[in-house]
Design goal:
alpha+beta, 2 domains, six-stranded mixed beta sheet, 3 helices, about 30% strand, binds zinc ion, DUF177 domain-containing protein
Length: about 170
């Protein structure tokens, strides 16, 4: 039996959803290799960070992710296993990648009770604003509205306000 403690960067971007482990992100591996009759039994833990955006409010997020795995790497040409030893080497890359990608959330959130965006203004809600959706703008930020040069955004906001009044 042998044990390894390894840090290695992700060789490519892992994940296709709102969050992913970026290429080059450090992956910390704790791996135990055991010789068994059919091959090498690989047991371990991997730790890294996934990055992306909150599925509700679109804020950038970075969260730690930790996974455990155990897989038999069979001797080539013997029993059918998902992974094979190659030249007496265990390539844990694909195993770690698959385990981490499967553990990434489909609906990542910046915090468990993230209230998301205001359906009228598109602005990020705070927990208090979610209960009072009519007052989404912090007065300290109100003057920033005059700096917008996005005519569409202004028109949309005006339409929303008109609808509320009628
Ligand atoms: Zn959020």
């Amino acid at each position: 039996m042998r044990e390894f403690d390894v840090d290695a960067p992700a060789a490519e971007r892992w994940g296709e959803g709102l969050v992913a482990v970026e290429q080059g992100e450090p992956i910390h591996l704790d791996v135990r290799l055991e010789s068994v009759h059919e091959g090498i039994l690989v047991t371990g833990e991997a730790e890294t960070i996934y990055r992306g955006i909150c599925g509700r409010c679109l804020t950038d997020i970075a969260q730690p992710v930790e996974v455990e795995f155990q897989e038999l790497f069979g001797y080539p040409g013997e029993e059918a296993t998902d992974f094979e030893l190659q030249d007496d080497h265990v390539d844990t890359g694909p195993l770690v990648r698959d385990t981490i990608v499967l553990s990434l959330p489909f609906q990542p959130v910046c915090q468990p009770d993230c209230p998301g965006l205001d359906p009228n203004t598109g602005e990020r809600l705070t927990s208090e604003a979610a209960q009072e959706p009519r007052e989404p703008v912090d007065p300290r930020w109100a003057s920033l509205k005059t700096f917008t040069n996005d005519d569409d955004a202004v028109a949309t906001r005006h339409d929303a306000e008109t609808k509320e009044e009628s």
